[in-house]
């Protein structure tokens, strides 16, 4: 009997309505044993971020998702963005296409972003043989977008094997690039007055399978996880600006001239200022959908969030996490910065299924992972 395809698996996945629904393990479905997990990671991402290349690092992290989606006709796939890399779970039928995409993505990141991208495709049965698992659930983001939550430490194990050089996907030949249509980082960094941008990773303590559910709920209640209170990019904060940032990187990704991209950005600004619509593009609706479709909160073997919090709330959060770390309930990493950045995948500006990947601009998830303790 043929294995279930990637899209068939995703169609049957439960889609959890609230972030709290992603806490119980029984809401997840095991990925089939004959599947694979593709993972990527920017080498020495912290050094690149310190050198001011945070937009390039995030674009390299999103590149695999964009390239795979374009290569497979935008079919639904379980994926997650981790700041300086990404992970995708997929069926054997997609192996040839995805391995080719990863090879080309490595070459593009090296040739155009001047960064080194690691890439590997790890069999799920190997992950399980090593004592980990990979289970997935859909997580409602908006009517147009479903995010994916991963538990079982399987993604982390795939990343560990990748960093050891196992299951590596070699780079393609120079100049052999993937289709990165729709990859964009045109939005300026988001700043919040009287607030800090916090990138947070919270996982089970070493030797434990999961964080006690009550502690997870208490944490989510503290930061109002099921409201937009901590959202760094609420609709009111999303603005078209000029001159647009990130145009050079977008031009490298899509092959579109910088002159044309600046023109598109200027036109969007004018439409937003005037309230006019053009060719099915409604700037007010687009800004609203952008805010809805931003992945500022996610589940990957614990909680990962980029939040906008007042200073007193940051202190409360840190004290809460430290108390439970000392008690042996969890481990955590925090990165504190003044700005958040968006890297976007926009198949069409006239449809609602554009997706926006968020990270902190001062280290973000990469720094939080380094601080995990």
Mean pLDDT: 88
Q: Please give the number of β-strands.
A: 16
**Low-pLDDT residue spans:** none
Note the run of SSEs as H and E: HEEEHHEEHEHEEHEEEHHHHEEHEEEH
Tell me the major beta sheet: 4 strands, mixed
Assign the structural class, choosing from mainly alpha, mainly beta, alpha/beta, alpha+beta, or little secondary structure: alpha+beta
Gross morphology is globular
Give the distance, in angstroms, between the N- and C-terminal Cα atoms. Answer: 45 Å
Strand content: 15-25%
Number of helices: 12
Radius of gyration: 20 Å
Total number of distinct structural domains: 1
Helix content: 25-40%
Please tell me about this protein's structure.
The chain is an alpha+beta fold and 373 residues long. The chain has one domain. The protein contains twelve helices and 16 strands. Helix 3 runs antiparallel to helix 4.
List keywords for this structure.
373 residues; alpha+beta; four-stranded mixed beta sheet; four-stranded antiparallel beta sheet; 12 helices; 36% helix; 22% strand
Indicate the topology.
Elements: H1 6-12, E1 15-16, E2 29-30, E3 36-42, H2 45-50, H3 54-71, E4 79-81, E5 86-90, H4 95-113, E6 117-123, H5 124-129, E7 135-140, E8 146-151, H6 154-163, E9 183-184, E10 190-191, E11 196-204, H7 213-222, H8 247-254, H9 258-274, H10 283-292, E12 297-299, E13 302-309, H11 311-326, E14 330-337, E15 339-345, E16 355-360, H12 364-370
Parallel strand pairs: 1-7
Antiparallel strand pairs: 2-7, 3-5, 3-6, 4-5, 7-8, 9-15, 10-15, 11-13, 11-14, 12-13, 15-16
């Amino acid at each position: 009997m043929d294995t279930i395809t990637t899209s068939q698996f995703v169609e049957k996945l439960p889609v959890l309505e609230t972030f709290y629904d992603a806490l119980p393990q029984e809401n997840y479905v095991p990925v089939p044993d004959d599947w694979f997990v593709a993972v990527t990671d920017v080498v020495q991402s912290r050094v690149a971020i310190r050198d001011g290349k945070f937009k390039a690092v995030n674009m390299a992290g999103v590149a695999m998702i964009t390239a795979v989606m374009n290569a497979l006709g935008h079919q639904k796939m379980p994926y997650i963005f981790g700041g300086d890399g990404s992970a995708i779970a997929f069926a054997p039928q997609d192996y040839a296409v995805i391995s080719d995409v990863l090879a080309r993505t490595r070459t593009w990141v090296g040739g155009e972003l001047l960064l080194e991208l690691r890439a590997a495709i790890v069999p799920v049965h190997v992950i399980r043989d090593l004592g980990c698992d990979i289970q997935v659930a859909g997580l409602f983001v908006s009517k147009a977008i479903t995010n994916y939550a991963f538990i079982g430490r399987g993604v982390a194990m795939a990343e560990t094997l990748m960093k050891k050089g196992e299951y590596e996907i070699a780079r393609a030949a120079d100049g052999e690039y993937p289709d990165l249509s729709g990859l964009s980082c045109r939005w300026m960094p988001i700043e919040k007055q009287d607030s800090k941008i916090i990138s947070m990773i919270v996982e089970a303590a070493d030797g434990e399978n999961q964080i006690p559910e009550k502690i997870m709920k208490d944490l989510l209640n503290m930061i109002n996880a099921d409201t937009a209170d901590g959202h760094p990019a609420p609709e009111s904060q999303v603005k078209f600006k000029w001159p647009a940032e990130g145009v050079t990187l977008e031009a490298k990704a899509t092959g579109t001239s910088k002159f044309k991209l600046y023109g598109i950005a200027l036109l969007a600004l004018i439409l937003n200022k005037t309230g006019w619509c053009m060719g099915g593009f409604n700037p007010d609706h687009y800004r609203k959908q952008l805010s809805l479709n931003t992945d500022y909160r996610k589940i990957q073997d614990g909680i990962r969030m980029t939040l906008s919090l007042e200073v007193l709330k940051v202190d409360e959060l840190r004290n809460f996490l430290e108390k439970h770390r000392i008690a042996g309930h969890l481990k955590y990493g925090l990165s504190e910065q003044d700005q958040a950045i968006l890297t976007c995948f926009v198949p069409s500006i006239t449809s609602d299924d554009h997706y926006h990947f968020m990270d902190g601009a001062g280290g973000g998830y990469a720094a939080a992972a380094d601080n995990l303790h």
